[in-house]
Amino acid sequence: MSLLQVTDLTFEYEGSFTPVFEGVSFQIDTDWKLGFVGRNGKGKTTFLKILMGELEYSGHITGRIPFDYFPFPVKEPQRDTWEVLWDATEGDVETWQVERELSKLHVAEDVLYRPFCTLSNGEQTKVLLAALFLREGHFLLIDEPTNHLDQESRKLVSDYLNSKKGFILVSHDRAFLDGCVDHILAVNRTDIQVQRGNFSSWFENKERQDAFEQAENDRLKKDIKRLEAAARQSERWADKAEGTKIGGIADRLHANVGTRAYIGEKSRRLQQRRKNLERHQISAIEEKRGLLKNVEQPENLKLFPLKHHADRILVFDKVQPCYDGAGQPVCEPVNLELRQGQRIFLKGSNGCGKTSLLKLVLEAVSRQTETGQGGGLPKIRGEIRAASGLKISYVSQDTSGLKGSLQNYAREKAVEERLFLALLRKLDFSREQFEKPMEFYSQGQKKKVLIACSLCEQAHLYIWDEPLNYIDIYSRMQIEELILQFQPTMLLVEHDAAFAERAADQEIPVIRL
């Protein structure tokens, strides 16, 4: 066990108007299992890079412990996985140790003798994590390992991490965090805080603290208003008493000593009362200023889905995507019936064909629009039937095409620019971000661009493919509330169990052959 002490940490990127961190101080134990949470673009990955020595900063970070970062680049992915592991552990590992770690992650031993590049995303994630945990005495900085992992793999990785100690884990998956962390490191709006417990206990405490501060804020607002009124009244009385005190010269000359003393004392007391009220008012204002600095108040999003004349929007009749045209099916036949206002989630392991099914829907509707009839699809078995005249809004997994300005992107997608930017503001984009090219955005910010664009589009059916990858927890909750309020018709692929539990009407299993 050792301590990592961060003192007065300040960092800002060159050309930025606001610092990422300013005067931040906290302390952590390197035996802890820390979940690192916060809004997109608030500095989580930046902090990990600071620990890795990749960025210069002011302040002090003390603690003698080597750091390892996940995911680390694999320089020659065409080499066998065993060789990749050997290099990652600097040769300080036995075969039985590797097999032990992989068995905990339900990874078959034969992957060791396959080229690393042929492994699925989930297999690569598990292998790289196993490699890092084989390096004893290192403190791990794990940056969003769940992206593109299916629910089963997320549970396996969460259980695996729970059996370990000594790491900082960046993740936005609430169920995943609850399963494997014992402390939360939270990037707030004005500071970084450390708290014992998992995500749920931290969030419950935060909501309780936010509610207390909101109540105190409301009370102080009323107090300030009352004090302001009392101060104005006291000032009028004091001015009146002062006027009496310095009244006409004749009156002063003929007044007896007792009367003059009484008027003077009354004036002094009223002036003192006014000063006391001013001090109380200033104190209340200062106390109020210290509240609500870290309160997250996500604004409600809006969506205006189109209503279709048909109740039945989409039907799958024994649908199977196929490799190479009419070749080998990817999954077992899928049957579903999507009615207006329903939200169906496709659920299954990585590589089982979920994304292929979504793309087949897009292709089927496109052909129907072009020809006026469904027509056959070259990469499918079974049949997809879609309601006529169906308008679809699609969110892809892929953000690599996002380049240039937000304004040009809005014009390219034919969405209303003001509405598009307003939605991004509600998703916690700063106005400074509006001026940056999209290629400089974080992955979470890029996904928000795709979602905001989709929310601007009026559609009968919203098809979203893993929309929450990299998206922060608060924005996930905003999107949940949006879906529950507006009840759009949706077909989704999403592995966030907490999100699916709240938003899905039905989950359809997709089983790989």
Provide a short characterization of the protein structure.
This protein is an alpha/beta fold and 513 residues long. 42% of the residues lie in helices and 19% in strands.
How does this structure look, described?
- This protein is α/β, with parallel strands linked by helices and 513 residues long.
- It has 16 helices and 17 strands.
- Strands 5-6-7-3-8-9 form a 6-stranded mixed β-sheet, with helices on both faces. It has a 5-stranded parallel β-sheet with strand order 14-15-16-12-17, with helices on both faces. Strands 2-1-4 form a 3-stranded antiparallel β-sheet, with no helix packed on it.
- The longest helix is centred in the middle third of the chain and has 47 residues.
- The protein is globular.
Kindly list the characteristics that best describe this protein.
513 residues, five-stranded parallel beta sheet, six-stranded mixed beta sheet
> Segments where pLDDT lies below 50 for 5+ residues?
none
Tally of individual helices? 16
In terms of quaternary structure, what is this? single chain
* Termini separation: 47 Å
Mean pLDDT: 86
Kindly state the number of beta strands.
Answer: 17
Strand proportion: 15-25%
The 3D shape can be described as: globular
Helix-and-strand structural type: alpha/beta
Largest sheet: 6 strands, mixed
Percentage of residues in helical conformation: 40-55%
Give, in spatial order, the strands making up the sheet with the most strands. 5-6-7-3-8-9
* Global Rg: 31 Å
